[in-house]
Amino acid sequence: MSQLTDYVTLVSSDGFEFVVQRSAARIAGAINRMLDPKNNFSEALTNRCELREINGVVLEKVCEYLYYNEKHKDARDVPDMDIPPELCLELLMAADYLNGELATSWPDERKGSAGQVLPKKRC
Questions:
Q1: What is the pLDDT of residues 46-89, one digit of tens each?
Q2: DSSP E strands: which ranges in the chain?
Q3: What is the pLDDT of residue 102?
């Protein structure tokens, strides 16, 4: 049995591995549930989440967003995050997969239902 660490590994469908801070990774609802020891998922024991629905290029951008969100969580007038147009559809699908409630109900334009900062740039 492994213990909780400050970092977790996110693995894409094509085998790319991204080591990210646990606090940033847990911003995504699905990852948060995977890593919660109370849920008894193997990911909580191994500190490794295999995201078979997300390829490496998209997961890299997701990781960038997780850190962007953590950096700007209490800020106002957050600058736009650079999102290449060719990734917009795949990023929206990844966002839905990782955190369904964010994709369906945003209480206001700048904060998600769990308080996450949302990028102003729309695809």
A1: 999 999 999 999 999 999 999 998 898 888 888 888 899 999 99
A2: 7-11, 17-21, 48-50
A3: 42
Cα separations (Å) of 35 from 1, 9, 76, 83, 85?
Answer: 14, 11, 29, 27, 31
Residue 47 is which amino acid? N
Best CA proximity match to 58, nearest among 123, 7, 5: 123
Instruction: Give dist(CA 32, CA 98) in Å, integer.
Output: 9
Per DSSP, the three-state class of 82 is coil
121 has a pLDDT exceeding 50: no
114 vs 40: CA distance, rounded Å: 22
Judge contact between 10 and 63, C-beta under 8 A. Answer: yes
